[in-house]
């Protein structure tokens, strides 16, 4: 399952996200033909969204940086805490609960038909491998070199990757979603006493607004690099075929829903992390 990734240190791997109101819209209007849980499990495996969900756990590495702290500030239990909070089964169960209420049979079958094809399964394998890389710096550097070579050659592939980025975030909400995850985490950490924030909620949002241009550029750059690295083994024709599939109305419906769910799970887990860290105290074991 294609996704959008942020690679700047304080925001790395917090993308593939849409805003909660979009998710609420789906849940307030449940699909009459919503798929059952077992079919959704199969859907997650075929599309690779199961691995994309699991990769949310890698987001924990950026958590201290968002708060202006270091991982070591939270003592020896950091790893145990993050493994508990970002438990993959918990995250999958949340996703299944939400998808049961909102994923239509028509959208499910449409996505499965493409991702279950020969090209689709190759794409899923490449995307899954990319999602599972813990040290993203190496892939970013490699992707940047690939993009630099493509630009130098005047290759059409760069424009294809840009078009792909628009297809997986057609509402252009990725940046806003990233900011919302960070906002909810920082405010939860403040409420829990993990940090002392000098700004109030309005002040924090104003600061984030000031940083939008820089963050937008960072996201665009990182998305291109991530795509260049992940799809090295695919021809321009195959990538164009993938983009055509992503741009269909039913696939857009699927991505809007899945991105909204992944956003809510990420924000929810970060809020839970903030309150759990408050129990530790900086530099202390539980």
From TrEMBL:
Protein name: DUF2059 domain-containing protein
Keyword terms of this UniProt record: Signal
Segment forming the signal sequence: 1-34
Domain DUF2059: 91-148
One Pfam family matching this protein: DUF2059
Species of origin: Epibacterium ulvae
